[in-house]
Amino acid sequence: MGADPLATTADLGRSVMLRRREFINAAFATAAVGLPLRYDHEAVAATLKAAGTGGSIGPEEVAVVRQLTEMFRNADERLGGGHGLTTVTAYLTDTVTPMLAARFPSAAVRADAFGAAAQLACLVGWKHHDLGREGAAQQYYLLGYQLACECDPDGHGAWLMRAMTHQALDLGHPHSCTELAEETLRRASGKVDRQTEALLPVTCARAYGSSGESGKAAAALLAAEDALSDTRDPLLSYSAASGPVAATVASHTGKTLTAMKDYSAAERHYRTAMLARTPGTYQRGHALTMMNLGKSVAAQRRHEEAIGLWNRSLDFMNGMASDRSWKEVRSIRRAAALYGRRGVPGAAGLDQRATELLRARA
């Protein structure tokens, strides 16, 4: 985390455009998970404000950044992290970052500009994570965190810490991120709307559940449900971007309960997550949730039902550039092959379909 995040953005952008192997193949660093806990954003903020020498940027330009980010995000959810990665990166590097060195008519417009840039950097990080480029994803998340701190170090900064926590959890490092998850909740509590806040204790719950702290996980899940029921305040833009909050909370609750081996409860929450999304939207999220639902059903020895769910999940895979999703397809194919040897009805057809999809992608 350098003293000049704008220079960092340019360096990372060149690495993406030039497809530098050392960047694309960089490994996830568990030692870097705690960097936000030691970050001095005041010193960086002073440097950035002193360096502001560009032209004038107003709220209209920031609104365009947000509109294009939403367009990029919708395409990402439909076609995966590999779709449009260089385009999104180029837009952040060549258009949005120079705007941050401009003069702003007010502190509010400056904060909004940095917040919009942070959301875009987070999207680039997410796209790398979806492609399995975990070191690159981590660097963009850290960059997004620095930019978010220029907007709102408590709320938006905590949101980027949440993203880093989930990356560590997805990669099987719960012990390295428990402190980060707790700090995320502590920092944002009472400073964001309650729906956004619901997404923070459920992150803690995932860390606790994966670490074997079932009592803490259960308490955190209850706190998330309590916050989710409070809809008095409007949802913040960065949390709204992750999709329906009820679906996100339910999906992560399902993952927490799966880690705790409560497959029946996990099944209920995965089904809730699917129902909370509007049909035809969030295709990748819907596919992954259905794949997880199939796993929870299979763990309860309802193998034919799991095969049906996995077959339906494959309907979303055509044209998907998502390494996370294709890893799940390979997992489905292995399970189908095993079920086929046991003579489970439908297993051979699922195995063949998954094999053909993987062969077409190769």
What does this structure look like?
This protein is mostly helical and 362 residues long. Helix content is 72%, strand content 0%. It has helices at 5-17, 21-24, 41-50, 59-79, 85-100, 107-130, 134-151, 155-170, 174-188, 194-198, 201-210, 214-228, 237-240, 245-259, 263-275, 283-299, 303-313, 323-341, 347-361. The longest helix is centred in the first third of the chain and has 24 residues, at 107-130. Among the domains are: 1-151, no CATH class; 295-362, no CATH class. The chain is built from 19 helices and no strands. The chain starts with a helix and ends with a helix. Helix 1 (5-17) packs antiparallel against helix 7, helix 11 packs antiparallel against helix 12 (214-228) and helix 18 runs antiparallel to helix 19 (347-361). The mean pLDDT is 94.
Summary?
This protein has 362 residues and is mainly α.
Mean pLDDT over the residues: 94
Q: Which structural category fits the helices and strands?
A: mainly alpha
State the shape. globular
Q: What radius of gyration results from the CA coordinates?
A: 21 Å
Q: What percentage of residues falls in helices of 4 or more residues? A: over 70%
Count of distinct strands: 0
Would you identify the regions where 5 or more consecutive residues have pLDDT less than 50? none
Main beta sheet, described?
A: none
Work out the strand percent: under 5%
Cα-to-Cα separation, first versus last residue: 36 Å
- Helix count? 19
Element-level helix/strand string: HHHHHHHHHHHHHHHHHHH
**Oligomerization state:** single chain
